[in-house]
Design goal:
By secondary structure, the chain is mainly beta. Helices cover 12% and strands 33% of the residues. The strands form three sheets. A five-stranded mixed sheet has the order 4-3-6-10-9, with no helix packed on it. A five-stranded mixed sheet has the order 5-12-11-7-8, with no helix packed on it. The radius of gyration is 20 Å and the shape is globular. About 24% of the residues have low confidence.
């Protein structure tokens, strides 16, 4: 490669990098959620960009749920995961604060646990499981309730009244349940 072509390639790469930085530093100032939060498109430490927001103060007990895809890496033998902290709560109002720590869009759906246990629901040809009996979901970036999914780095939330019993917390986007996006929540 000649000095001129190296210089030209360097200028092209520099220009592409600057365009990328401008693109990921934009702040969206459109209407925020009902809580007044406004999502921000910001870079993460790994060079990826995503929504950065947090949930407001939520009623009842709070369960923090991490939705992760680890960029395709295996986690505990699974490609993707859902973790809930705490994994046991008392019956009554329970607020779920779902944070997408992955690189793909995710959602949180709360369902009664099947008799066979977590991860045993039949997956349809569309890569999803039946949501019959769903108690609710958090699938809105930087907002409450249902939406188009929780973007990487964003938080979504929902408050539900739960009776005693076991529940399954899942991501039901195509293929995600089959790749390990489920966990159990016990309500006493």
């Amino acid at each position: 490669m000649t000095a001129t072509s190296r210089r030209t390639l360097g200028l092209i790469l520099t220009a592409a990098g600057l365009v990328g930085l401008v693109g990921i530093s934009r702040v969206f100032v459109g209407p925020g959620s009902r809580s007044g939060l406004r999502p921000v498109w910001a870079p993460f430490g790994d060079g990826q960009a995503g929504w950065a927001c947090s949930a407001p103060e939520l009623p009842g007990q709070t369960v923090d749920v991490a939705l992760s895809d680890m960029g395709g890496m295996m986690t505990g033998g699974r490609m993707m995961s859902v973790t809930a902290t705490p994994s046991t709560v008392s019956a009554g109002d329970v607020s779920f604060r779902a944070w997408n720590s992955g690189m793909m869009t995710h959602e949180l759906v709360v369902l009664p646990l099947p008799a066979a246990g977590p991860g045993t629901r039949p997956v349809g040809s569309d890569g999803r499981v039946s949501e019959a009996g769903s108690l609710g979901e958090a699938s809105r970036s930087c907002g409450e309730g249902s939406g188009e999914g929780i973007a990487p780095g964003a938080t979504g939330w929902v408050t539900l009244h739960l009776d005693p019993g076991p529940y399954e917390l899942i991501c039901n986007l195509p293929g995600h349940y089959a790749m390990g996006m489920f966990t159990e929540l016990d309500v006493s």
